[in-house]
TrEMBL record:
SMART domains: CLECT (SM00034), VWA (SM00327). Residues 527-656 form the C-type lectin domain. This is VWFA domain-containing protein. Transmembrane segments: none annotated. It comes from Ostreobium quekettii. The keyword Phosphoprotein does not apply. The keyword Nucleotide-binding does not apply.
């Protein structure tokens, strides 16, 4: 077996898995036969993935010529009326031999709740671009011949499967799982299946940190006309349950719920086996929100789980940690107790802000992980609803190489968690075929193991990785494996070991910022300096290291130096001020005029519209509070980071000077020039337009998909058939199949 590729770390589990090889060696020929089988299956996946990649790149020319595809939930089949035994019998057909399969065409499944009579452009594009790979499907056979399914699934949730076969529907489907838009056909989303998850993310340790405070019982009807009766917890629970379905056998996971108190599911990370995932789901279902919101103890416990797991693994304990990526998913609907009147377990010292105190704790914990030889943890905060304060969550993401997202009641949680899943997939661009653990096939094959491979859009001209566009998979039935090597456990371990290597997600340049997007991009991490020159405005800027002061004292200081409290004249200047601001916020020259009651810049006297992009978006922030007549800017992002503040509050500030008025520190001190030659550590998206345009062009929906009729994409569904009628051979009777 080839050694791990450069840049990948092999898990300590490899030591125990080496024993597997030694166990196989005495069998010689059997081991060779097993290797031949593995190689033949991987060859199938490689060939289909290569063709799917080409199909994606050529979609603009092929989609306009799209011919309709049979939907697996339809009833108007042709070649699939033929009875076949290659893939065995269908359990739903009882004692009947064989089942109806189409070896001429693949069938498609669309994402749950899709209206096939009114397909969206992205779904039409995904169906049509892979319409022409049936020949590749038919020619890609492993050592068994045709004994299982081969398929490609897009990030939009469209799945094309060969050979074509009918999907379960009607009375055979649990009503909760039936899709009303598809005649009660069983809902199916490939993005939650083990093979998709395994292909798009490497092994990882994950701690879910979940806000279960009393505010989770509230509804966000103020935004949606009262039509949505779900509570925030209802929405969060759906997101968590969906997320739990995305973990694979190579992952380790725990869950921390918090309100005024903190509670862990168990004292250590759990191996993400199917049984443990069910256990986690049961816990989520039983949660009753109550109490306040205290971030710090929950995050401290989450880090302690990661640190303890790493220590246990270093001491030689098996199944304690993946020893790969460390991730904290932090979900909240409110603001930390330090920013409200709620009691907290920990009160920051008088000279330390609440935000700084929490970020300092996280950095201390990160250093503990690094001291053990571990990767730093990536934090992905998720705010639910507009009432959720985003200051601390956003700044946590920016300080810990993560991505922040906000989920609203009408949103698809999986779609809004795309940055998290795309982040995990980003390191798999050059990955080969990986193998899943065993699981029950959704389409009736019984226990299977799958070889899968992600497919990506092309890299940009500047070298940024392309975006994940789909996953190719090929199943192998365990009963077929056992014919080659009866040592069941040995075989399974060997298969999994083929794909068990750590993924290094090292973003450079614009990569992570593009993943964050406009709403969540982070400010630059400026090196310390006495003064900063910004070429775009031609002005100098300072952030004096004085004790915190009131707004009036800050303005007086800047004027005494010959300048003004900094103002925002254009978006790129907001980028700079966010980079210079303190975590808790710095004074800028913006106040609410007491006569007009409008927000105005102190020097230019220009009015700032209440709909301006500079204002924070949190629903609880008021621009008309008479006790908050001044403004600060913080590091929660480069847009929507200015908020009203009581003028007497004491904090730091930013001064702005014209070149003629520049103070001595801007002439004789350390000056950093932010100009065309400046190299950003965290580039603003405004400097990433070329890469962004390339990525958008590489993944843009085909123009033809915008105008194709749905009937050109999905063939007529035909008569409404039962599962038995659609799947079982014609010589099979209902009595035999019952």
């Amino acid at each position: 077996m080839a050694p791990p590729s450069t840049g990948q770390r092999r898990s300590p589990h490899a030591a125990s898995l080496l024993l597997v090889f030694l166990l196989l060696l005495p069998g010689g020929p059997r081991a060779d036969e097993l290797d031949d089988l593995i190689d033949s299956v991987q060859s199938v996946v490689d060939s289909v993935a290569a063709e799917a990649t080409v199909a994606f790149q050529r979609r603009s020319s092929t989609v306009p010529r799209c011919e309709c595809t049979h939907h697996a939930c339809g009833g108007a089949f042709s070649a699939s009326d033929s009875c076949h035994t290659e893939i065995g019998d269908a359990p739903l057909c009882g004692t009947c031999s064989g089942q109806k399969l189409d070896f001429n065409e693949s069938f498609v499944l669309t994402p749950p709740t899709t209206d096939v009579s009114d397909l969206t452009p992205d779904v039409k594009d995904a169906i049509c671009m892979y319409r022409g790979i049936d020949e590749t499907f038919a020619g890609a056979k492993d050592s068994f011949g045709v004994r299982a399914w081969t398929y490609v699934a897009s990030t939009d949730g469209v799945m094309r499967t060969w050979p074509g076969h009918a999907h379960e529907r009607g009375a055979d489907v649990d009503p909760d799982l039936a899709d009303a838009n598809l005649r009660g056909c069983r809902k199916y989303d490939p993005r939650f299946r083990p093979w998709y998850v395994a292909a798009t993310s490497g092994p990882k340790d994950v701690v879910l940190v979940i806000d279960t405070s009393g505010s989770m019982r509230e509804r966000d009807n103020f935004l949606f006309g009262g039509g949505d009766t779900r509570t925030r917890w209802d929405i969060v629970k759906v997101a968590i349950l969906s997320l739990l379905d995305t973990f694979s056998i190579n992952d380790y996971i725990n869950m921390v719920e918090f309100n005024s108190e903190v509670k862990s599911l168990v004292t250590e990370l759990l191996h993400a086996t199917p049984d443990n995932i069910v256990l986690l789901k049961d816990v989520v279902e039983g949660i009753e929100p109550s109490g306040g919101t205290d971030f710090r103890p929950a995050l401290e416990v989450a880090f302690d789980h990661l640190i303890t797991a790493t220590n246990r693994s270093l001491s030689g304990e098996e199944f304690a940690s993946s020893n790969c990526q460390k991730i904290i998913l932090f979900m909240t609907d409110g603001e930390d107790c330090t920013l409200s009147d709620q009691p907290c377990k920990f009160t920051p010292p008088d000279n330390v802000t609440a935000v700084d105190s929490l970020l300092d704790l996280l950095e201390t914990k990160q250093q503990e992980l690094e001291a053990l030889g571990s990767q730093r943890a990536h934090i992905f905060p998720i705010s639910f609803g507009f009432e959720a304060d985003d200051e601390i969550p956003k700044e946590m993401a920016c300080a810990n190489e993560g991505v922040w997202a906000r989920i609203l009641p009408e949103d698809d949680p999986l779609r809004d968690l795309n940055a998290y899943t795309a982040y995990l997939a980003s390191g798999r661009g050059d990955a080969g075929v990986i193998w899943t653990g065993t699981y029950e096939d959704e389409f009736g094959l019984g226990k299977v193991i799958t070889a899968a491979k992600p497919i990506f859009s092309p890299k940009t001209a500047s070298g940024e990785n392309g975006s994940l566009v789909g996953v190719v998979g090929h199943d192998v039935r365990l009963e077929d494996i056992n014919k080659v090597a009866p040592e069941f456990l040995t075989v399974i371990r060997r298969f999994i070991q083929r794909g068990f290597s750590c993924i290094e997600s090292n973003f450079t340049g614009c990569g992570l910022q593009l993943l964050r997007g406009e709403a969540a991009q982070c400010p630059e991490r400026l090196k310390p300096a006495d003064c900063y020159f910004f070429e775009t405005t031609g002005d100098f800027y300072t952030a004096p290291q004085t004790d915190p002061v009131s707004f009036a004292e800050a303005e007086q200081f800047c004027k005494g130096q010959g300048g003004i409290l900094a103002e925002i004249d254009e978006p790129s200047e907001e980028d700079l001020l966010a980079a210079m601001a303190t975590n808790a916020g710095s004074w800028i020259g913006l106040t609410r005029d007491r006569e007009s009651m409008e927000w105005m810049w102190r020097s230019s006297n220009e009015t700032v519209d209440r709909r301006s992009e500079i204002w924070v978006l949190t629903e609880g922030v008021s621009l008309t509070n008479p006790r908050q007549m001044c403004a600060t800017i913080d590091r929660r992002g480069v847009r929507h980071n200015v908020h009203p503040t009581a003028c007497e509050m004491r904090t730091h500030f930013i001064c702005e000077f014209t070149e003629e008025q520049a103070p001595a520190v801007c002439k004789n001190g350390t000056v950093i020039r932010i100009d065309s030659e400046y190299e950003y550590a965290v580039p603003p998206l405004s400097t990433c337009r070329f890469e962004e345009e390339q990525l958008q062009a590489a993944t843009a929906i085909s123009p033809a998909a915008q105008i194709l009729n749905s009937s050109q994409v999905i063939c007529d569904l035909g008569d409404e058939l039962t599962t038995f009628e659609a799947r079982c051979c014609d010589n099979c009777t209902a009595q035999e199949g019952s």
